[in-house]
Protein 1
Amino acid sequence: MSLLKEFERRDLGEIGRDLHDFAASLYPICRSITGSGIRRTLAMIQDRIPLRIHEVPTGTPVFDWNVPKEWNIRDAYIKAPDGRRVVDFQQCNLHVMNYSIPVHATIPLNEIRPHLFTIPDHPDWIPYRTSYYKEDWGFCLSHNQLAELKDADYEVCIDSTLEDGQLTYGECYVAGRSSDEVLISCHACHPSLANDNLSGLAVATFLAEHLSGRDLHYSYRFLFIPGTIGAITWLAQNREASERIRHGLVLTCIGDAGGFHYKKSRRGNAEIDRAVGCVLRDCGESSEILNFSPYGYDERQYCSPGFNLPVGCLMRSVWGTFPEYHTSADNLDFIQPAQLARSLRLCASIFDVLEGNQSYLNQNPYCEPQLGRRNLYRSTGGDSISIEIHARFWVLNLSDGEHSLLDIAERSGMPFAAIHDAAELLRENGLLKGIVGVEKAP
Amino acid sequence: MSLLKEFERRDLGEIGRDLHDFAASLYPICRSITGSGIRRTLAMIQDRIPLRIHEVPTGTPVFDWNVPKEWNIRDAYIKAPDGRRVVDFQQCNLHVMNYSIPVHATIPLNEIRPHLFTIPDHPDWIPYRTSYYKEDWGFCLSHNQLAELKDADYEVCIDSTLEDGQLTYGECYVAGRSSDEVLISCHACHPSLANDNLSGLAVATFLAEHLSGRDLHYSYRFLFIPGTIGAITWLAQNREASERIRHGLVLTCIGDAGGFHYKKSRRGNAEIDRAVGCVLRDCGESSEILNFSPYGYDERQYCSPGFNLPVGCLMRSVWGTFPEYHTSADNLDFIQPAQLARSLRLCASIFDVLEGNQSYLNQNPYCEPQLGRRNLYRSTGGDSISIEIHARFWVLNLSDGEHSLLDIAERSGMPFAAIHDAAELLRENGLLKGIVGVEKAP
Amino acid sequence: MSLLKEFERRDLGEIGRDLHDFAASLYPICRSITGSGIRRTLAMIQDRIPLRIHEVPTGTPVFDWNVPKEWNIRDAYIKAPDGRRVVDFQQCNLHVMNYSIPVHATIPLNEIRPHLFTIPDHPDWIPYRTSYYKEDWGFCLSHNQLAELKDADYEVCIDSTLEDGQLTYGECYVAGRSSDEVLISCHACHPSLANDNLSGLAVATFLAEHLSGRDLHYSYRFLFIPGTIGAITWLAQNREASERIRHGLVLTCIGDAGGFHYKKSRRGNAEIDRAVGCVLRDCGESSEILNFSPYGYDERQYCSPGFNLPVGCLMRSVWGTFPEYHTSADNLDFIQPAQLARSLRLCASIFDVLEGNQSYLNQNPYCEPQLGRRNLYRSTGGDSISIEIHARFWVLNLSDGEHSLLDIAERSGMPFAAIHDAAELLRENGLLKGIVGVEKAP
């Protein structure tokens, strides 16, 4: 049975609440590209799905890069002369610039200012900043907070460590009948940001859970990795596995109220691009297909020219285009249970296309077969025919060995599920045969 | 001389009246996919053109089908207790469901109701229904008629026979210089329906008449056949002839007041598709090109994947999209002399393209030849040039052996006739040569 | 340094005034396709650039044509009975139909009328007429002038000669490192017409001046020729050189206030077509790309099927579409210094694309190289990246040996200059290598 159909028998509202609850449980953790935050995150994902955790030592060369030092943080604050913490990491982990080196000093506000980041246009919001590859320290705060600071000497403290250690990532492999793989990749390196991080993590975790134990054609590999350096590290250490990737999706920003956006792979017309296009066309939500560009999430690495993998990026609102992006306003209210659930279901529909897409041969290619005597047609002439019968005609007409079911769905304008169901029915009735050597069905 | 030009010398109004008169003479006959109705129809066509009549016995296997029993009907009615015929086949042959098995009984209205068909949205119209492949009986009547029937016992009588016999179809072959064929196919199995049947029969008959005795490149095969089973039967029994079909048109619903619609062949870019597209572009009537779909008229069979013939379907209003379709309102008022005549002329233009389309070689390919000294150019500079001279430049520029005249008409946006005339003139002046081996001209 | 960048360091206003002054100095000359007018024009161009003057004798066969007789004119007028010149060549050289044979007679107005040309819709303007290949004589005058002529005998005098002589054209060759050529062609045969002639002559002359002495990849050939017969003559006598033409532009009507129009070469997707398309897309002025058609300027000859050279035509307003075309209103007010200068700059941008377009190989094709440690990236995460950094990502991503910089500019939607600068920077940093054997850089 198709993944989508099984979804339709479950309570989507409940699935949405579960997804949101899971995101909420991950929300408080101060993640970064290395360190205990991502480790704890992966452990919580591991509670739900069989996750293999990998640790790669600092300094390991990965293509043009080296695995960076491991960063950990216990506390950080700016303390006013009266002893009050005016900026406090314990209240919000965005307050410290991610990867800040340790600092502890009492210095006048003027000297602190170059290390302070705010968003004047949204004076209540705290920005999210990082400095992974240039050693520096900084605090992020709301513009209102900054405005209240008077000239004085403040105690600044960042109780962090930046030392040789490990880069940590998680990998969940759901084996199918074929060793050909579908890659699902999401970054797990952002601290308390909900849409840009947790939405992807939650949906990917639930997808892996949903696929486990099923009879699948493809094997599915889920990566929970730090952005950029994680994808580079995985690719550097898994050249062989990367060659088995037939289709892939980067999942991110998939929980907000916006319509879907799909950024195509560098190839532009890969099967994953067409599959997502077909599913979005019929999904009933607003959606837009974007051309590939070499900036964004980890599709940057998967689609680098040496790999050129068929990996696209599925989003709702596009990163960088909504004001809440990379601010404290990307919080648990910004992602919604219903949207998370519908994103999950959409991914299932996409996998249905990948799993079900193959080519058949019409066994009666000369004229139409007589559907009526097989009870595959209406009996009284004069009325229009149903969508189901239309789909049968399309499948019969184009099953010449040169058209896949996805081709037929595209050309007919009919949902893939309708085309796939028609093909199954025709196959059961002996009117179609799968092309030998390429059958996906068990 | 071109077919179109000859048309332009005749009175289109008169041609339209002749077409309508011919349709009117066929209108009263109760046609079906077999039986005396189609036989009589073919005999009347035979009065105008040399038609070869074929009879294929019931039970003959044709691909996945068998030729059905032959159906004939003499009378049918529903008689009220007072002896009055409340539904009477003699008044309108649509009243009986086509292919109804014989029945004669007096039964309460309640038991008759499942066999009655009406159109509640158009309470004055009688629907057209068939049940070819499921043995059944029924009556079609206006919704108003039905409303007046009171609960009582009625005498229902269908005096029909459904017995072993023949499937009958007609074929008119107009020989050209080449054995390559143009197929024109229309169904002849609908009873008193004007646009959906008679318009195509009339236009095809007049086309065959118009082509007879001409010096033609292609041979033209006109089929007057029962829908679906007729096309299947012809294809099953004429595999060799089917391989000679280079272009084809199904003609139907070609007499109503709507603009033209052309449904492309399965190939989508066959020469016939491009020829019709070019002619419609310049025909001065509204028109729309539709993509192929595997449901419709007999293009379904010609375009089945085993044949995949370059056969499209030319219509005015598209079947199933106008309310009169398959009802008593598709009557002789619904088709119009002027539209029939313009449809006929359009077909002639299409044949002109097929007949005249070939490639030439510019004999002076280096720079333009000096048209002026051949009196093929205006003499005084400064003004714009005429369409005729424009067409000469286009033909000269693209006659490199890789562009046909149809290519040139498409690329230049100029009517095919203008391009063809220019090519003829240039050829007569020694500036072009037909490519050896592919010349269509006699 | 790019041609465009050097332009940006100069005063565009001053360049515009120089261009207009040069056009103004050429304006009074009565040019024709042969004779002293074009000779004097070429001599004035020769004052600025090294121009080789060619003279081809009358009667020389050039493909399907022969070089015509040489035409020269000293004076022409229509004199009223009172001795007043009512039409006077000395006031405006458009008054005489170009290539008029000599005539001197006193005849009644009625007999003169067939030789008089006016523009009733623009009663103040004098039309421009020619009769190169049909021996005839005529006068062009304003419709108002004609209206004032009373019936009487007038002395008509055209003091011209049409005798065996020469066809004259000029050629300026700017040698680059490669013998591959870029052709720039403009006609020099129109008398006092500014946009349709002088704008192209001025821009081409200044372009040749601008290119001289530079280190260039391509060699540039500038042709200043009589329209049609000049191009035919050059092609007939330079078959070998014509085979070295890799890209070409016909320049005409390039000084008026309209937006740019580029008519593509017959090939439709030649590199010159794409280069101009890319430059126009980003030029900040309105512009339109037109498909090739076989009528127009000398692209007609360069794009004849035997040559099929990649030569397009760059214009502002399209010849024949503006009312001033081929009238006395196409005067020095109709062309504007600013437009001439921007046309010149646009041509420089086009040459920049041709000169700079080549393919590179990303030396780190597996994942992105770490731009940060090479100071090619911003240092703090969280903000968007600059256009310059975007361009670097595009160049790295698509430099797989199958995409040229022009491909990348087209696909990215970024200006070619930004893409080219990024490629240079990446090459200097060792991240790109030019593909051996196709490098254009010195």
Protein 2
Amino acid sequence: MAAAPRLIDTDLHNDLAGPRELLPFLPKEWHQQWLEQGIGVGGKSWSAVGYIRKDVKPEKGGYPGSDPEFVLKDHMDRYGFDYAILTGNASMIGISLNYDPDYANAVASAHNDWQNEVWLKASPRYKGSILINHADPDAAVREIERLAGHPDIVQVMMCSASRTLFGQRFYHPIYEAAERHGLPVAIHPGNEGLGPTYPPTPSGYPTRYMEWQNIIPINYMSQVNSLVCEGVFEKFPKLKFVAIEGGISWLPHLMWRMDKNYKALRDTVPWLKKLPSEYIKEHVLLTTQPIEEPTQPQHLVDIINMCGAEDMVMFSSDYPHWDFDNPKMALASFPRELREKIAAKTAMDVYGLKEVVEGAGIGGVAG
Amino acid sequence: MAAAPRLIDTDLHNDLAGPRELLPFLPKEWHQQWLEQGIGVGGKSWSAVGYIRKDVKPEKGGYPGSDPEFVLKDHMDRYGFDYAILTGNASMIGISLNYDPDYANAVASAHNDWQNEVWLKASPRYKGSILINHADPDAAVREIERLAGHPDIVQVMMCSASRTLFGQRFYHPIYEAAERHGLPVAIHPGNEGLGPTYPPTPSGYPTRYMEWQNIIPINYMSQVNSLVCEGVFEKFPKLKFVAIEGGISWLPHLMWRMDKNYKALRDTVPWLKKLPSEYIKEHVLLTTQPIEEPTQPQHLVDIINMCGAEDMVMFSSDYPHWDFDNPKMALASFPRELREKIAAKTAMDVYGLKEVVEGAGIGGVAG
């Protein structure tokens, strides 16, 4: 009898062994640009020194996270993940910030074909994302249509940084397509303040990496606020929005402030039919990594409980990045019922992962 | 025997009865510009319709908040405030965002002289702020030197929106002067996204007032993050920083994220000697209005307790703005010891208000 998954990683960065690995999937006219400029998104000042874990280099060489077989052994089996949602190279996720939409569309499509060929065929435990260029919604919709039928594709993914807040009408065709195909739309950080976006804070540019990294979640709050206020979840009532790697414990503040203002100002947003916090609870998912670590771990549980976020949070590891979370440590402090939801149950529902596939590891953490 | 204050309002917007009231305090060469353009800071798209309470118009006419005697009766006596910290016209606070530093400096000085003449002389229960133009730190320092000796001046004040994050070295002369005179530096919101600042979110411009108002606190998080990461509180160990009207319950998230990153990345901020959250607890004050209102009021108390913020929070009313908080309602849910700190004790320490002055009302809420 098939068992239900017990541990799912919702943020595994599968990567290219090197830039040339993308070439078979990229039209020839873009090869030189790709090899010389990569994603070509300006601004790298806040990159951490030592961004990638040094202890997870594939045995046969290449970049950490670039060998599907090694990742199965080094990550999936080691920690007992039944499934992992692939999120690709963290820089490539930011392709939406390239100034040229044609190049961005081509790189996104190449990424997706490479993922499907090299990773989704390597193991049924890997599930894929459709990387889109959110700056060209028509092209993004075509990419969703092209790949949504793939049996191992489970979400649409785009970078969290943008020139226009995600609630605005410009993006609605993307949500329409994602909702129609039953795919959640996920955002991933790391490009805040780069390319043609605005500074990472309303008062300008942080100086060092730590300061920039600390403050990334304010962009997540801004995007969630925009999605709710613009009525996206009334217009697309089945849409799920996955906020990867953007923090959790800002939820009470945002929910309470939005709900209070809604009570006074709801005549200015007449398309909203219920409290903003209700839309957030029903439509927004958050991933755990980097897990917040109060001195008393119970405080994070309290935060989740006080805003009714028990069904909003999914485990993620961020393998192979420096701030990787080990599920055995990150999940240890949650009470059993909540831990099981975070470890796998919520992700099962969001991504439609009903059963453990043959050969999958045993979810050793949530059991 | 003199009694200790029992209720202090840390955000009372005293206002001009009209623009002409400033003229006696403003050099003649700026009169026409002031009468024609006011503060002259571009961008007003997110202003609320009905921003000022309609029920608090002075009996003798003029703008709400413009009559010191009426405010004593209508606000101070009605709710039993022993003292109020004056914060002036909310738009004028944004004078730092005028493109012309000479005009901004002149308007700030005129504001301060008007406050001292019209308001501080009207009652010893009013305590004043030195409004500065933070975009010209040398001039701001001169203004602090000019007025810090006034016995009823208790803080330096500037708008929270800025072109450069407040931790950066550009602003350090302001902090040096404020610390030397024992004056806290306060910031006040309302100008996020206006004039020469950046958009109010890292991903651009909100559409409507509610969305903009919801998200203002992200700028506060950014400024506090910058102040701590840049080592301002190591360099100025007696400096207090008052974050007016920027929310409270984002503290756990910001503290936990900063502390976690500090543990991994402290070699990049070697000037920090302790956890970021410790600097926040020792140096940052927050005001209550608009008080966050979870369905279960105990949750806000829990948030304050879980991040050790019991001595960080001070009551404020925001009189006469639309989102005014009545202290009888806003303070009702706090347990006694915490309520007394929020109502008056913390503000007494921060602003050096030791005794109730003769004729002051009786703090009816905290008793």
